[in-house]
Design goal:
The protein is an alpha/beta fold. The chain has nine helices and 13 strands. The strands form four sheets. The protein has a seven-stranded mixed β-sheet with strand order 2-10-9-8-5-3-4, sandwiched between helices. It has a two-stranded parallel sheet with strand order 1-12. A two-stranded antiparallel sheet has the order 6-7.
Length: about 350
């Protein structure tokens, strides 16, 4: 039975990328070694590492004004690394649109005068605040947003203009649509949604922002240290970087992020259209702010939600249970989720509705 993994992360990987990993696991790059056992100081691994950085630069049109860092610790570690590296006057503003942006603001408050200047908690994070009316303060070091809300299924379709450095957690949208990197001072993303297996965190940061971390910033969290060492200050997550590099190759081969975005828009439209035209399923997210990557939905009752998840699992549609903060179901349809997977989900939804009306 073909299994489609709708998990919010770790998520599906491209099938041909996984096949290549299997072929190369015992002999990567004709080295006679697996990537998981070769030295990160060897030329074999350095070639993988540097190709990964170069491909990501190409795919995202990242200029030489930015460092591309391959780090560890997950996006959650960046909740601390960002203020530790970027706070100069000690002031920053955060927009809270869900669980992870709330956690990011809470961590940052340990290090300075941090203000939550907009918050969509009043409607259970079902919308993005009007970016034109967010009251950002004057003379702040940076403003922080989370571009896509993985749990609640929202995303920014327009960026705020805080008149300062804009920082974003792009974990669940990176490589799914074009991002104008030049509008940001810093972007960060955990790998386990659109890039590869967990273990790698990508940080894209302007070169002129990294040289004055707070004195209390640990060495391992200093962007300047990691940049100087080309992200090889200590042993990196080699296997995750290798798989990320293969994913970048895959995306380039299909026409890059622009082509991937077309596919993602089609997948999301198919699923949202079905939900919107149903009187059995519903999605409470503001249509203007709906995520293309994470689609939450519910049936008429919690009991039916539970039955849906259980029966879907038995039909090869896994990890559809919604986050504990939301309930219901959530279909995460990241880059590697094929159109066939979305169609299989819609087909199951039709059958379940028919049998449970």
């Amino acid at each position: 039975m073909r299994v489609y993994n709708f998990s919010a992360g770790p998520s599906m990987l491209f099938a041909d990328v996984k096949s290549q990993v299997v072929r190369e696991f015992f002999d990567c790059s004709s080295s006679g070694m697996s990537v998981v056992e070769m030295s990160h100081r060897s030329k074999y691994y350095e070639d993988i590492h540097n190709e990964g950085i170069a491909l990501l630069r190409e795919l995202m049109h990242i200029s030489d004004d930015y460092h591309v860092l391959f780090l560890q610790g997950g996006a959650s570690q960046q909740f601390d690394a960002v203020p530790l590296n970027l706070l100069k006057t000690g002031r920053a503003d955060y927009v809270v649109t869900g669980h992870f942006s709330s956690k990011a603001a809470a961590e940052a408050k340990k290090y300075g005068d941090i203000m939550v200047v907009a918050n969509s908690k009043d409607r259970n994070y079902s919308y993005i605040p009007d970016v034109d009316t967010i009251p950002f303060r004057e003379n702040i070091d940076y403003a922080h947003i989370t571009s896509n809300n993985t749990i609640f299924g929202t995303r920014y379709t327009k960026l705020p203009n805080p008149n300062t450095i804009l920082v974003s957690d792009v974990s669940s949208i990176i490589l799914s649509e074009d991002i104008d990197v030049n509008k940001f001072g810093l972007l960060y993303a955990g790998a386990q949604k659109n890039i590869g297996p967990a273990g790698l965190t990508v940080v894209i940061v302007k070169r002129d922002l990294i040289n004055s971390p707070l004195p209390i910033c640990p060495t391992m969290l200093k962007y300047s240290v990691q940049a100087e060492a080309n992200s090889l200050y200590n042993t990196p997550p080699c296997f995750s970087i290798y798989m990320a590099m293969l994913t970048f190759r895959k995306l380039k081969s299909i026409g890059g992020i622009t082509e991937m975005y077309k596919i993602n828009k089609y997948k999301a439209k198919r699923l949202y259209d079905f939900i919107d035209n149903s009187t059995f399923y519903s999605n409470n997210v503001s249509p203007d702010n709906r995520s293309l990557m994470n689609v939450p939905f519910v049936t008429p009752s919690a009991d039916l939600d539970s039955a849906f998840v259980k029966q879907a699992e038995a039909s090869g549609l896994t990890a559809l249970k919604g986050h504990r903060l939301v309930g219901g179901m959530r279909a995460s349809i990241y880059n590697a989720m094929p159109i066939e997977g979305v169609e299989a989900l819609i087909s199951f939804m039709k059958t379940f509705e028919k049998e449970n009306r």
